[in-house]
Fold this protein.
Amino acid sequence: MMNFVEELRWRGMLHDIMPETEEYLLKNKTTGYIGFDPTADSLHIGSLVPIILLMHFQHAGHNPIALVGGATGMVGDPSGKSEERNLLDEENLAKNVAGVKAQLARFLNFDSTTENAAQLVNNYDWMKEISLIEFVRDIGKHITVNYMMAKDSVKKRLDSDSQTGMSFTEFTYQLFQGYDFYHLYKEKDCKLQMGGSDQWGNITTGTELIRRKSQGKAYAITCKLITKADGSKFGKTAGGNIWLDANRTSPYKYYQYWLNCSDEDAENYIKIFTFLNKETIETLIAEHKKAPHLRILQKKIGEEVTIMTHGNEAYENAIKASSILFGNSTAEDLKTLDEQTFLDVFEGVPLAEIARSIIENGLGIIAAFADYGFLKSNGEVRRALSENSISVNKEKVKEDFVITPNDLIANKFVLLQRGKKSYFLLKVI
């Protein structure tokens, strides 16, 4: 079998590993799982690392389980949190679980005819059957408070400097997650749990519960949490999270996030977020260092990750959209963009609203440029026209040009342009 642990090691993904885990995985086809917290109806790119962990695990011949925390999502994981978060109600949680399940199916092979098909489980399915008395008696008695207090996620919140402390709800979280591992160990012969490095305490509670309650042996692996070289948070922009849902973050914006990463980050990301082999990656890094201005690494990461997340067509459209501001694109190219991608491409461009009836009656070019705040006067528009520097939807126009509904992009926008870099949008209402 492929050495799964070594694959993580050379890619810089391995953080902690329980003794004997690597040897066990080399000798045994193993079932392993990772939990995903349904705090929203979409995962964001911070979840890509655990998803890719499961993908490597499946590629190595093992059996992956993706657990969606319908039950633990009601409790809230304190790991890495400085304060308790708001808990979701059942309706929103069910909506989030459905969204996360649909996304995971894009990355893992769940085809039951596959020898090591992935499985998708929701811990609410078994947790809902357990009463508080049963849980306290059958699970709680096996893990001491001393053991639970020693976990970093607990110690940090109970530290004298902490302003918020920790509720009993959050304190019990590690027991819930530990029970998940125990349940999967018993029901699906699951011997391995994986996760981010902040999950080590929760994961080892599971291995300890399995040891004490079943006299069994289970294993644990965590990967490094992704950080950026400049110290800013990975997966965040000024506009918020970068999501895996195309309706929340368009493929264009998603591609741009990877394209804009620093050279130092790109050398790490090419190993972590792609499945390119070591030789190919080393060649790409060497080529990039010779001509960093070409952004070879960033473009390759953007290509691989965008296709993996959204598909080839979405990647091609993102490339097309990326070239619109600076390339020789046409009105027809613009009209292929959906509304969200168009708005993402021209984010920050000044915009004025215009009644649809005006466009339907035909809007003269001088009025379009002078009456809505782009250029200051009819005279300035005429001078720009004489210089051949006026464009509508990226195409040069003359003074007799009239804007009609046929010129609308996504049936509501017209792109005005003076020279190469000065843009203005008309939005039809």
